[in-house]
Write a structure and sequence with these properties.
The protein has a single domain, classed as Response regulator (Rossmann fold), CATH 3.40.50. It contains four helices and five strands. A five-stranded parallel β-sheet has the order 2-1-3-4-5, sandwiched between helices. α1 packs across α4. The longest helix is centred in the last third of the chain and has 24 residues. The chain is globular, with a radius of gyration of 14 Å. 32% of the residues are buried. This is Response regulator.
Amino acid sequence: MTTSTPRVLIAENQYLIAMEVERILQESLTCDVKITPLARLAQELSAGDFEIVIIDAAAAEPLNVERAKLIQSAGAVPVFLSSYDYYPVADTVVSSYPMVSKPPQSAELAAAVLDAMRRKSSDSEGLLDDR
């Protein structure tokens, strides 16, 4: 059985941050990466098949929940990037996903993406077991 290279979408309005995330991922993991501004998130999710979406966390929890649900509905797992002293309330949609501080550190970002990939893999296996 062959496994395909995971596809990662970076949805970030700060292009230099997005490029740094892309560089870290390409140096530390084997994955295909695409960068998009937040305004095009829904369009990119409908046009592509992504396993992981690294997304800029908003200061407002409801917006993060909305984005997480959009990402989940596309079959991907979100990883949040945050420049805020913001930690989501426990037992919320957002708190159940990895969150990485900006500027991202290589080890922390790679660990968060690997965690998301494991979650994606276990979600897929669970769906197959339900048949």
